[in-house]
Specification:
about 200 residues; mainly alpha; about 80% helix
Length: about 200
């Protein structure tokens, strides 16, 4: 049975809620283990996951970009918390870049019909006006990717519908994504530390 666009989006929303609940349960479990408050316990927990852990995490990041069922902010925070600032940033960066490239080529190959399984027509139309002028859209896309609050995944899909050259898209993603990831990661890390201190008190 083939799902309609609306049914697919509804399924994605349901899976997002389910994945969020699972993440909350895992966070409570990890918190009780003490790995958020003790660096030694964190290192002990990750000791046997030094190779598998990063690979699995990168795969999760790729999936959450292509099929948005995991809140992106949570996965970004997870990378930095579990693997440290620099390794976590690198793993986040690799996964998100690969996922963004996949989005572009999926949209280019399957077209608008594929995108409407992920986002609504209204959401797509909101940004489609920028595609009337390709050069203007290229600049808009680059600036949006730099902005932490922009709907990156939607815009990556939209870019696939335009005449943007793959290499142009590649370099915009590779050069602009790090700043957004760093901004999100730092904000989430310091915010979570503040919350943990608040809870600890």
């Amino acid at each position: 049975m083939r799902l309609s666009n609306q049914q697919t989006r509804k399924l994605i929303n349901i899976l997002t809620v389910v994945s969020s609940i699972i993440i909350v349960i895992l966070c409570i479990y990890w918190y009780k283990l003490g790995i958020f408050s003790s660096e030694a316990k964190m290192e002990a927990y990750l000791a046997d996951k030094k190779v598998v852990g990063p690979v699995v995490f990168i795969l999760i990041q790729i999936i959450q970009v292509v099929v948005p069922i995991i809140p992106g902010g949570i996965s970004l925070l997870g990378g930095v918390v579990f693997f440290g600032a620099i390794p976590g940033f690198i793993y986040n960066y690799i996964g998100i870049v690969i996922g963004s490239l996949i989005n572009f080529f999926l949209a280019r190959y399957y077209g608008k019909a594929f995108i409407l399984h992920i986002v609504s027509q209204e959401s797509l139309d909101k940004y489609a006006k920028w595609t009337k002028n390709q050069k203007q859209f290229n600049w808009f896309f680059a600036i949006a990717i730099l902005a932490p609050v922009a709907p990156d995944d939607l815009l990556c899909l939209l870019a696939g519908l335009t005449e943007m050259k793959p290499w142009t898209y590649f370099w915009i993603i590779v050069l602009c994504k790090p700043w957004t990831i760093a901004a999100y990661s730092l904000g989430l890390v310091y915010g979570s530390r503040w919350l943990l201190k608040l809870v600890g008190k």
